[in-house]
Amino acid sequence: MMAPLLLEGRVALVTGGARGIGLAIVQALHAQGASVVIADNGVSIGGDDADPDIARTAAAELGERAVAFTSDLCEPGAAEAAVALAAGRFGAIDIVVNNAAILRDAFIFKAQRDDWQRVLATNLHAPFALLAAASGSMRDQAKAGRAPGRIVNIVSSAGLVGNLGQAAYATAKAGLFGLTRVVAMDLARSGITCNAVAPFAATRVTASIQPANEAQAEYKTRASRIPPAYVARLVTFLSSGANTFSGQLLGVRGREVFLFSQPRTLHRVVGDTLARQDALALGGVLEAEFTDRLTDLATDLELFNTEPLL
Ligand SMILES: NC(=O)c1ccc[n+]([C@@H]2O[C@H](COP(=O)([O-])OP(=O)(O)OC[C@H]3O[C@@H](n4cnc5c(N)ncnc54)[C@H](O)[C@@H]3O)[C@@H](O)[C@H]2O)c1
């Protein structure tokens, strides 16, 4: 007997769903019975040269339960229009996956404001706009007795750990994790969950890494072997009614799934009153108490440079 489908009758909206990890997510949600809006304008890694045919082709290949939304998600009104398309075509909005992102890397001392703004607009402001646009309907649906919705934000180890030259990208992804926590809290009473996933998978982005040293070359070779379907499997679970986690930060790298810690106070010292202690004296206490507990400056590429399990 066939296992029942996990997402029968559910309606999903996946940004950046025409390619790479997003396409794998779209295919997995669709295979589990969901109807899917593929919101993707088909831009380059840096966010240029839009091509709407990529999302249209992906939707056509899936058939009836898929539709393309090809506007730039950074444009005013695009988020509302994407949600309206889901509701108009498929009657609801149950699952939102914020996966679209662009990269414009530069060392901080060479970074350009325009690049910063485009990356923040795509990777952080657009996910905010989509959640602001979708969450009202998701709450109303839950109040009306429909199974509560599921939100997954695709973040990056670069935003959690840091990486050279990725000021804008890492900042946006760190912000998206902050957004994940607040959205999880704001929607908890409706039973809607919101989680963040840091993926590792072979896509055109991994293919474009220009290794600056041997460790990075090794990382690239390893990452290039990881099919995005592993990310899609985790996102499918988190998008289903079987998932109860919310506000959590997970990672997925082939068969390995990670639960990340979240910033909490690690250690505390109580300084003297201002009248009695100067800055240097406080520094001495901190050095004695904190030095062994500091976080080193390893990049995410260094931390996750192990052999993938496939
Ligand atoms: N590949 C990895 O190993 C890896 C690692 C860490 C994080 N990620 C994250 O995973 C997600 C997917 O990455 P990927 O490697 O598949 O990237 P990708 O570049 O292959 O796909 C991203 C998609 O988003 C779309 N997009 C970009 N800007 C858009 C906009 N304004 N409106 C609509 N669509 C837009 C693009 O057209 C593209 O199809 C991203 O959030 C990325 O930051 C990937």
Give a brief rundown of this model.
The chain has helices spanning 20-31, 53-62, 78-90, 113-143, 157-160, 167-187, 204-207, 214-223, 229-238, 279-290, 300-303, and strands spanning 11-15, 35-39, 66-69, 95-98, 150-154, 193-200, 249-253, 256-259. It has 310 residues and is α/β, with parallel strands linked by helices.
Highlighted features:
binds nicotinamide-adenine-dinucleotide, Rossmann fold, 42% helix, 310 residues, single chain, 8 strands, 11 helices, alpha/beta, eight-stranded mixed β-sheet
Mean pLDDT: 96
In helices, the fraction of residues equals: 40-55%
Q: Round the Cα radius of gyration to an integer and report it.
A: 21 Å
CATH superfamily: NAD(P)-binding Rossmann-like Domain
Q: What is the CATH-assigned architecture?
A: 3-Layer(aba) Sandwich
Largest sheet: 8 strands, mixed
Low-confidence stretches: none
Number of domains: 1
CATH-defined fold name: Rossmann fold
Q: What is the overall silhouette?
A: globular
What sequence of helices (H) and strands (E) makes up the elements? EHEHEHEHEHHEHHHEEHH
Q: What is the count of β-strands? A: 8
Q: Name the beta content range.
A: 5-15%
What structural category do the secondary elements indicate?
Answer: alpha/beta
The CATH top-level class label: Alpha Beta
Structure ligands: nicotinamide-adenine-dinucleotide
Distance between the termini: 28 Å
